[in-house]
Amino acid sequence: QYVKGASTGSSAASGLEGLVMSPLVVNKSDANEPSNIDDDSGLWKPLVRPELSGGLSVKLRFIFGQSRAKEVATLGLDPSNPSTVCLQAHIENMRTDVGTLRHVRIVHRRGASGGSISASKVILPPEISVLKK
Asked: What are the pLDDT digits (tens) for 32-70?
């Protein structure tokens, strides 16, 4: 349900009336139900486009809520720490010639640039080390 706001008369805000959404009401019984990672995650953001990278497609999304707490605890981190960020990556070979991608390297680079804060600790799931063999 949308709440209509009063028009401010500003040219930047004109046409945006009615786009403010009222807060969602959460039942306490829903908080105890098992979480679904698709419900507790953001939109997929493309990082690497296949048409520019020889067929490699990489997308990321943020995981939050109960799914974040579960995944962070699985990795041995404190889920109550608000500075812990949980990302889900989707890596796919989308080559049209049915060729294989021989090497995909995931590199953690340290150093702040452009106002970004570098990660102090990066933990990859065990599947990544299995792919090296």
From this structure: 666 688 888 889 999 999 888 888 899 999 998 888 998
Contact call for residues 89 and 112 (beta carbons, < 8 A): no
- More confident site: 43 or 121: 43
- CA end-to-end span of the chain: 52
Q: According to the 3-state scheme, what is the secondary structure of 23-35?
A: CCCCCHHHHCCCC
The angle formed by the CA atoms of residues 78, 80 and 85, to the nearest 5 degrees, is 75
Looking at the DSSP assignment, which residues form a beta bridge with residue 87? 62
CA distance 78 to 92: 30
**DSSP summary character for residue 33:** S
